Amino acid sequence: MRWLPAFLSASLFAAGSFAAKKSSEERFAEFHAKQTSHAPIKLKDSSFKSLTAPPRDYSVAVVLTALDPRYGCQLCREFQPEWELLAKSWVKGDKSGESRVVFGSLDFSEGRETFMGFGLQTAPVLFFFPPTIGPHAAASPEPVRYDFTNGPVPAEVVHSWLVRHLDGRPHPPVKRPVDYLKWAVSFTMITGSLTGLYVAWPYVVPVIQNRNVWAAFTLIAILLFTSGHMYNQIRKVPYVANNPRGGVSYFAAGFQSQYGLETQIVAALYGILSFAVISLAVKVPRIADPRSQAIAVWAWSGVLLVVYSFLLSIFRVKNAGYPFYLPPFM
Questions:
Q1: Which of 43, 80, 151, 208 is the right S-S partner for 106, CB 3.0 to 4.6 Å?
Q2: Confidence (pLDDT) at 204
Q3: Band of pLDDT at residue 19, cut at 50, 70 and 90
């Protein structure tokens, strides 16, 4: 039985030599057959070297990742489903392998030597190995790296990145599975909304057709925008500010700036003035009693005078050179 160890050694050497002599076409056929049943292919150090070894007339897209919870790579776990979706969509759309792309994943626990060889300190890292021979051979055999500098990315973004490196070859699109739960929720919400609208329609129509409602809505919108609401949204102004004496400033100096609370105060003053004018023009003439009508005229006129005087005083606070004023706020 002394010949048995020697025989085994010779057999392994012969098998290794035969594997090493596999042509690029044979290697692609082998790995493409694997990814048609399970994409992306789970690699080890040895299979990674075989897959990426030159000469190579096919492309390889490999993610070097660290999915084991011991490594605490949250980004790896978030991106892995997107990578699997991209690989499965591509392989399903190119079953014949016309694009000649192989998708793989190499986990740190199975590829420490590869990680050390590339000098990687972080994961995940996506490598694209272009062909070294054939009509689509790249000028440089070095792999192209995709860095996840902005966090996890969807499969569509990585697909676009791969397409840029696969000119003149088929590019099967990413096809996400149907989210039946999302469709069910959306259908339920739409159906419920339509049912509620159908039931409430007889009560909603009179409100929609009411002129007073539209007048109030229009007036509120006018007051809101003329008081500077859009200015605040665009400039992101503070609500209030501290003054040099340690107190709070409600009004910003100058006509080119304002605070959030200042906008609300001015809008409220405009609203009171508008309501006073509308009352004088619409409500007061309908009062039948002359004495009550006179009191209403004097009352609303007084409101106009006081509120408008206060509004002018605000303008003078914002700009001391403002020339107009009314009593009682001088």
A1: 43
A2: 87
A3: very low
Query: How far is the C-alpha of 156 from the C-alpha of 138, rounded, in Å?
Result: 24
CA separation (Å) from 97 to 83, 92, 129? Answer: 18, 10, 16
Give, in order, the Cα–Cα distances in Å from 255 to each of 72, 169, 176, 271, 322. 54, 62, 54, 21, 10
Q: Which residues pair with 129 in a beta bridge?
A: 60
**Contact call for residues 259 and 237 (beta carbons, < 8 A):** yes
What torsion do the CA atoms of 35, 37, 43, 46 make, to the nearest 10 degrees? -80
Instruction: Quickly tell me which residue has 């001088």 as its tokens.
Output: 330
- How far is residue 39's CA from residue 6's CA, in Å, rounded to a whole number? 39
DSSP designation for 236:
T
Cα 213 off chain centre by: 37
Q: What digits encode the pLDDT tens for the residues 103-123?
A: 999 999 889 999 999 898 888
pLDDT of res. 298: 95
Residues with Cβ < 8 Å from 123, sequence gap 6 or more? 64, 65, 66, 71, 73, 75, 76, 108, 115
Helices (H), 112-210: 112-118, 155-164, 180-208
How does pLDDT run across 32-44, given as a tens digit for each residue?
999 988 889 999 9
CB 226 within 8 A of CB 258: no
Q: Which bin fits 163, alpha (ψ -120 to 50), beta or left (φ > 0)?
A: alpha
C-alpha to C-alpha distances, 121 to 48, 71, 115, 311, nearest whole angstrom: 19, 12, 8, 65
171 three-class SS = coil
One-character DSSP codes across 36-87: HHSSSEEE-HHHHHHHHPSS-SSEEEEEEE--SGGG--HHHHHHHHHHHHHH
pTM of the model: 0.54
